[in-house]
Amino acid sequence: MFSNQLFANYRQKLDNLNVGLVSLCFVVASASASHAQILFRDDFNGNTLNNNYWAIGDWTFDNNRAWFGNTATVANGMATLTLDTYNPDRYGYFRGTEIYSLQDFAMTATGIEFEARVRTNMTARGGVTAFFTYAQVPPDNYAHEIDFEFLTNQIPSQKVLVTSWKDWGASGSTYNDGIHHKSNDNTNGAGQSVTGLDLTRFNTFKIRWLPNSTEWYVNGNLLNSWQEARPTAPMPVRFNFWAPGALWPAAYDANLQPADLASLNQTFTYDIDYVQVSVVPTSVPEPTRDTSPIVVAILGLARWLRGIWCRSA
């Protein structure tokens, strides 16, 4: 019915179509199987911080030279946290920012993912920006926490500090004891170098809080994973911007000092492009085993077309 050359051309088109349909089948199957349940997301598309999502911190803590109280601003699809050198309400302190979700996130059967795309604009030494989870558990208010911390002192070294905490404050709590605390730098708390990382540009950071371990990812690449000091309490997602004291030498800088007058104020910024919290998806099965109607239909169409062309030969 066809010349050899014509048949060869049609057969090649068939093969290409068949491959395309099967590839589409694989994509559909994978997307269906790996779809994550989103628990919380903010793209900061408005012009003010959504008070149905977020609360503002107004406190300080040990070795923090900043008192939180600034409200994050929202513009151009970003939330911006600030660190001011002048604090009109707390003389002698910097004025920092902390925001935290009103929603707490509890462990699930597969785990929880916290993901954010952030940029630290401060290049002066002495500041810390963070993306983390934190909660205190009554009655003793022991702390449970997972951190990404970005030290402006360490920007030239491309370092990121990650830590986890469980029942911190309980008897025997010691830094890097592997029970109540663990970090990726047990020497001086400066963090771990990530080749090519520029914290002054946007980067995506992800925490995977799993039933038996905790993982930290930088731009899709696994940075650290361990089982020790894994928190178990429900926690909100948080961001903050502050200035540590001399008890943290890797992050402190004596040249960064609070201003006495408003006219001498310096403002540093930390941007959040988006944040998302989702349930860790179950592992993706082999796509060819997917029996969803759309996948079955695509495979059936591929077989039917192949049968027509083969009979035409």
UniProtKB/TrEMBL annotation:
It holds the Pfam family Glyco_hydro_16. One of its GO terms (molecular function) is hydrolase activity, hydrolyzing O-glycosyl compounds. Residues 31-283 form the GH16 domain. Keywords: Hydrolase, Signal. One of its GO terms (biological process) is carbohydrate metabolic process. Residues 1-36 form the signal peptide. SUPFAM superfamilies: Concanavalin A-like lectins/glucanases. This is Glycoside hydrolase family 16 protein.
